[in-house]
Amino acid sequence: MPDERLSRLAELVDPERIVPATVDIVDIAGLVRGASKGEGLGNQFLGNIRETNAIIHVLRCFDNDNITHVDGSIDPVRDKETIDMELCLKDLETVDKRLDKERKAAKVGSREAQAACQALEKAKSALEEFLPVRTVAFTDDENDVISSLQLLTAKPILYVCNVDDTSAASGNQYVEQVRQAIQGEDAQLIIISAQTEADIAELETYEEKQMFLEDLGLKESGCNRLIKAIYSLLNLETFITAGEMEVKAWTYRKGWKAPQCAGVIHTDFEKGFIRAEVIKYEDYIKYGSEAAVREAGKLGVEGKEYVVQDGDIMHFRFNV
């Protein structure tokens, strides 16, 4: 997870090592038309997707006669719909199986089953129209039912439009077509040129890479933007610990309170949580050290209800 804050803190703290947060991005190949019925890698492919927290869907948004397309023409919206159809068909199969079970229970008077049927019928209606489940508005109780199914189309999704070099900064007509197609889908979109990324990877120094990016009108590489976009898509944020041994980024879910974040480091920290000492990143950079921050009265002492903020530099006090 690219994080410039770690480097700046390391300049002040001079730790033995820097440990960034991580995101695993897995390339799953093999989806073809009919995958929901077992074509190609079929069930293996769909099973692999089910294990993920989110989906990155890369769409070809460039013309190049030397690179053939399986369908013979460039149409990212059609490509998107092909994948959507396969995922919807697989989810429909899953929903139908569960619906049969809940209907039987509902007939003998189970109120829980009756409520489940209502949620499942909503999902079924959307899937029959080849609409992803994430487009459906569910109540909290209905969400509990749907979440238990691990539906493929309920997962958050990021569309990556793979463009040519000249379109890397602002996109092209294909990107606009995709943007229109995903309206109302609660999905994110970013633009990347895979060719540009390959060229950047061959450059040796940071300075060369930055000059190359600036020439294309870009502030940072597509890879960095992709990782950050996925981090945000999963509703994740970072708190930091900084000491002589290491400056380390820790991943937590947005909205978590101090004890939960303490538990990310060690379960004992959460169980025996007493308080959290918090320094805002901007204050650490401004004053230059933890001691100077304390002297300036900028170190916050927070209790169990404190909602951790992205970039907080934290020290936990606990007793087990």
Helix fraction bin: 40-55%
Order of helices and strands: HEHEHHHEHEHHHEEHHEHHEE
Helix-strand category: alpha/beta
The overall pLDDT, averaged over residues, is: 90
Shape, principal axes of CA atoms? flat
User: Count of helical segments?
Assistant: 13
Which strand order does the major sheet show? 1-6-5
End-to-end span in angstroms? Answer: 32 Å
> What is the CA-atom radius of gyration, in angstroms?
24 Å
The percentage of residues in β strands lies in 15-25%
Number of strands: 9
Q: Which sheet architecture does the biggest sheet show?
A: 3 strands, mixed
Low-confidence sequence ranges: none
Q: What keyword list fits this structure?
A:
single chain, 320 residues, 16% strand, flat
Task: Please give a quick description of this structure.
With 320 residues, this protein is an alpha/beta fold. It contains 13 helices and nine strands.
What does this structure look like?
It is a single chain. By secondary structure, the protein is of the alpha/beta class. Helices cover 45% and strands 16% of the residues. Helix 3 (76-107) packs antiparallel against helix 4 (111-128) and helix 4 packs across helix 5 (140-147). The longest helix is centred in the first third of the chain and has 32 residues, at 76-107. It is flat and about 65 Å long.
